[in-house]
Amino acid sequence: MNAVQLADELQRSRHRLASAREEERRRLRRDLHDRLGPSLAALHIQSNELRRLIRGDPAAAKIMVDKSKIETREAIAARLMDYFAATTPNPQCPMTRLPADPIP
Q1: Residues 6+ apart with CB under 8 A from 51
Q2: 31 with 93: CB under 8 angstroms?
Q3: pTM attached to this predicted model
Q4: CA 61 to CA 50: how far, in whole Å?
Q5: CATH of 3-86 among 1.10.8, 1.20.5, 1.10.287, 3.90.210
Q6: How far from the centroid of its chain's Cα atoms is residue 64's Cα?
Q7: What is the residue extent of each domain of the chain?
Q8: Is the dihedral of CA 36, 41, 42, 48 positive or negative?
Q9: Distance of CA 47 to CAs 24, 39, 53, 55, Å?
Q10: pLDDT tens-place string over residues 50-100
């Protein structure tokens, strides 16, 4: 292979890598939506239950608020960490840099 062919192959390889990375980002966005959505819906349902409990059983309402806060924080943190870990390129790895990315 000559230099022109190698440069063309490198460009095609980078394009395939960028396409794969973008597809993975799309997959993660769908996964984030599909997994976080039910957690948020449950939080909405719990908030309606809390409204009822506040009037009749304030102690139970407090327990539910504390539990909901923990569950919500854990659900959001877990999904966001998964998302960011998978979508943040490693600047030290030449395979994750796009042609426009600066070389460290």
Answers
A1: none
A2: no
A3: 0.45
A4: 6
A5: 1.20.5
A6: 27
A7: 3-86
A8: positive
A9: 34, 12, 10, 13
A10: 888 888 888 888 898 888 888 888 877 877 777 777 767 666 665 555 555
Q: Which of 7-11, 22-26, 27-31, 99-103 has the lowest mean pLDDT?
A: 99-103
Query: How high does pLDDT run on average in the chain?
Result: 80
Burial of 75 (0-12, 13-18, 19+ CB in 10 A): middle
For residues 42-72, b (16+ Cβ closer than 10 Å) or e, as one string?
Answer: eeeebeeeeeebeeeeeeebeebeeebeeee
pLDDT value at position 97?
55
